[in-house]
Amino acid sequence: MIKRILKNKLGLSGLLIVLFMSSLALLAPFIVKYEPISLNIEEALLPPGPEHLLGTDSLGRDLFSRIVYGARISLSVGFVAVGIAVIIGIILGSIAGFFGGIIDAVIMRFTDIMLCFPSFFLILSLVALLAKPSIYLIMVIIGLTSWMGPARLIRAEILSLKEENFILALKILKIPTPTIILKHLIPNALSPVLVNATLGIASAILVESSLSFLGLGVQPPTPSWGNILMEAKSTLGVAPWITFFPGLCILITVLGFNLLGEAIREELK
Amino acid sequence: MSKGFLIKGEAISKTFKLKRGWQTFFIKALNKVSFLLPEERILGIAGESGSGKSTLAKILVGLIKPSEGNLIYQGNLLEKGKIQLIFQNPYTSLNPKMRIGRALKEVLYYQGLSSQKGELERIFSLVELPFSLIDRLPSQLSGGQCQRVAIARALASCPSVLILDEPTSNLDVVVSKKIIDNLLKIKQTLKMNYIFISHDLGLLSYITEDLLVIYKGKVVEEGSTPDVLKKPLHPYSQLLVSSAKRDFSLGLEEEDFSDEGCIFKNRCIFKMNICQNQPPLFLKEDRKVACWLYQN
């Protein structure tokens, strides 16, 4: 499958973007020259140049360093939040799909209720409600409000898989039910969730940026793409590059995950 | 028959409920089927598609419960998983994401048996599979090899009865023959009992000793395989035997689904007035046949 995704030009570019951004995030301390939070008022609002690759912000912090460290925050929020969502989705979806009946009805109605809330406002109010927004809290809250998609996908897959002969054969062989679910059903139900998760990372990154932009997400001085944008608001007229580069990063990263997700979906068809 | 029986079915019926919108249909897949699986005999069940053969197989292994009737198992065959089922399409009966060695080890593990290499080698050699295939996925095997793996997995649970539901109809003739011969050898070495379900009379005559002919969920004829196939009594059995020889002179007209009287009357060339009534099983030369022709 990986080979065929590499042959798909859009998929390949998506994969390259994702790999590039991930390596930026992982290797951040080795890439940047300046500390992302070290102030230098004398060098405030410098345009992009050889000394400061992408210029500096209103407090004289190196924008390139802040964006690279921001990638750490944004990507880790994306991966962890989706990880939480997928784990919850797999647990609820597989239980609902396998046991059916009343258990299925209860779990799926709960899922429907969760889907009724406009998720961004739910996240906003949860963050506002819970005292100090930290990056971990953001991850957990995004995860807890986006498991419904994976849960429905897993349930649908398991509903059709559990009638397959190999599952019937395992039942006749008296293999215990938890083993059947964990070792046989879930591995075969995962592929559509993979697509969903890849696309989910993109939307989690967007949610985190929006939250940070609104001041409810990652708190300064820790850089995240969203709060760099927020701080750049006031200087948009004098120093447009401070808004431009983090915005571009969000755009490219989200595009990368979406392209990769679409390519995987095409391959699984 | 003195040796006793392994499974005895008494008037097994199964009705499926089907909902289409507001309407509910009832489909009678099995209608009062009685049979006996004696020890150390191979029972064959013959019938065309939709006759209820596979439903019977699923009832026998406990996957579905009969709507009516009794199943009597010797000892606790069913609870201990001593009855195993082999499916028609071998590729769908194995987990496509699990290597076959692991699939076998899993069964051995939950049976509380050793899952050492030696044990796996023994099972592989039982079904005449080269041990080098152990790390393959089902998709990397041929249909015949896959079916052998499915048989090996069933054998790993030490069953006493193996039900084979059209085990070779997806395979070519040579491979089928090899697998059937292998199964006969396993019967000798492990004292295995088989129930063969098939539409293929050639296969049934090759391997089975007793034969049950099913039509529309009802037993129409029952007797020893050579007798039934050499001189079929019921018009439906006659039709089956003649069409197996590519002789369609007995007719293959469209059927209808009326349940009144004899189930076969609309396709039968010997149709009489009495056929409006349901025939019981008449005894004729140690065979049972559900046809008014054999009333006396």
Which labels suit this protein?
heterodimer; A: mainly alpha; MetI-like fold; 12 helices; B: 296 residues; alpha/beta; Rossmann fold; 8-stranded mixed sheet; 11 strands; globular
What's the short version?
The complex is a heterodimer of chains A (269) and B (296). By secondary structure, chain A is mainly α.
Describe the overall structure.
The complex is a heterodimer of chains A (269) and B (296). Chain A is mainly alpha-helical. Chain A has twelve helices and no strands. Chain A has one domain: MetI-like fold (Orthogonal Bundle). Chain A is elongated, with a radius of gyration of 22 Å. Chain B has a domain at 5-82 and 159-234: Rossmann fold (3-Layer(aba) Sandwich), CATH 3.40.50. Chain B is 28% helix and 26% strand. The relative contact order of chain B is 0.14. In chain B, the strands form two sheets. Chain B has an eight-stranded mixed beta sheet, with helices on both faces. In chain B, strands 2-1-4 form a three-stranded antiparallel beta sheet, covered by helices on one side. Chain B is of the alpha/beta class and 296 residues long. The chains are: A mainly alpha (269), B alpha/beta (296). The interface between A and B is medium-sized, with 17 and 25 residues.
Q: Classify the secondary structure makeup of chain A into a structural class.
A: mainly alpha
Helical stretch count of chain A? 12
The end-to-end span of chain B amounts to 26 Å
Return the domain count of chain A.
1
Distance between the amino and carboxyl termini of chain A? 11 Å
The number of E-state strands of chain B comes to 11
Overall 3D geometry of chain A? elongated
